[in-house]
Design brief:
disordered N terminus; mainly beta; elongated; 7% helix; single chain; 2 helices
Length: 197
């Protein structure tokens, strides 16, 4: 996976109006191992549990499970893993900042991602100071003093690649800015992120 280093798994419900393809032996896969349901199935993909609708424990008989699956009378829970790694965009909501005011603006990613560049447009960059940039509780700043937003505009050539904490799904990413101009100004910003889905 290279640079995409903070990866988590998830779950997928199958059966009963869901997709049965590729899961004929789901109920019998070893937990955390190869479910054996199809060639090339990755380790850890199986180990799910088949739950018949309207019943308690799943049947022990494989033929009974297969019959339930075929008749769409069972639900299965399968562990899944991210399948896409790519660069995506993350935006902050445009926010009107009164002159002289300091505001914190937040956004929440809907995918697991790591920010490697934040961009504040150059047409407003000289009107703002940035006091804080946080991913969750982690602050990008090495001290408590603000920096000119122009350090982060689209023309900044020496910023390199940021390496903050990985933002979990629905984590809070925030930037605190101060309008140092003489007029209210709409603050806009966006991030380039390495995302995994």
């Amino acid at each position: 996976m290279g640079l995409y280093d903070d990866i988590i798994g998830a779950y997928d419900i199958i059966g009963a109006r869901g997709d049965f393809s590729g899961y004929p032996q789901l109920a019998f896969g070893a937990e955390g191992g190869d479910c054996g349901c199809q060639p090339g199935c990755p380790p850890g993909y199986g180990g799910g549990m088949m739950v018949p609708l309207g019943q308690g424990a799943p049947p022990a008989d494989p033929a009974a499970v297969a019959a339930l699956v075929a008749s769409k009378q069972a639900l299965g829970l399968a562990s899944t893993y991210p399948r896409k790694a790519r660069v995506e965009l993350l935006g902050f909501p445009p926010t009107n900042v009164p002159n002289g005011a300091t505001l914190t603006i937040t956004t929440q990613p809907q995918v697991l991602c790591k920010i490697f560049r934040i961009v504040i447009p150059s047409d407003i960059a000289f009107q703002f100071m940035v006091h804080e940039f946080k991913v969750g509780k982690w602050n990008l700043f090495a001290n408590g003093e603000p920096v000119p937003a122009a350090m982060l505009d689209e023309l900044a050539s020496d910023i390199g690649e940021l390496n903050p904490d990985t933002a979990q799904v629905n984590a809070q990413i925030s930037i605190t800015v101060e309008n140092i101009s003489n007029a209210p100004t709409i603050f806009r910003a966006g991030c380039f992120v390495k995302a995994i889905e």
